[in-house]
Amino acid sequence: xxxxxxxxxxxxxxxxxxxxxxxxxxxxxxxxxxxxxxxxxxxxxxxxxxxxxxxxxxxxxxxxxxxxxxxxxxxxxxxxxxxxxxxxxxxxxxxxxxxxxxxxxxxxxxxxxxxxxxxxxxxxxxxxxxxxxxxxxxxxxxxxxxxxxxxxxxxxxxxxxxxxxxxxxxxxxxxxxxxxxxxxxxxxxxxxxxxxxxxxxxxxxxxxxxxxxxxxxxxxxxxxxxxxxxxx
Length: 232
What we know:
Blueprint: E1 7-11, H1 19-25, E2 30-33, H2 82-94, H3 100-111, H4 118-132, E3 138-141, H5 142-145, H6 151-161, E4 166-169, H7 171-175, H8 181-186, E5 190-193, H9 201-204, H10 211-218, H11 221-228
Parallel strand pairs: 1-2, 1-4, 2-3, 4-5
Helix pairs in contact: 2-3, 3-4
């Protein structure tokens, strides 16, 4: 039996992301939300995928500022009644699904908190979805851990402090040289790419939409369905 290496991955906080986002998280043991990254307008940070084949994307309104801000410092524009509208959209799309009764009340609680901090809202939403999917992740935030001036030093520091043996990332990150694989591996940390999503209909049919539809359809079994296809 091969030795289990603790696997760390990072993820930018995103709004009701798609199935593949959680497929990647499910391959990890430790997740660090990179809330220290710069906020990018009209990106998945505040724009959701379509809720379903019959629904459109939803957009969180934010306050505009003259200078760029990190995700952790970005503020939601509470002057707009967006929380009620977004929850009503969720309700309209999913109230007839098998597990609406189980999840919609919790989503309503989160939306009605009226949070002003964007990162706090996104991460609370994501943490709840991760919990609903029964993913046994240790979750941390970059802004709480602290970070270096460059990606490589930050990843090495996090892995050493958390006693992590393997760093998981996407092929895009390596291809675009957003990290230096050799530098990280020279520090004693294995760098591996996420396993691709298998070509099974039950998984692929949800890739273009928010994971919410998958969750509402399969309920507590959703996470087990996801995990049974993970690489061994």
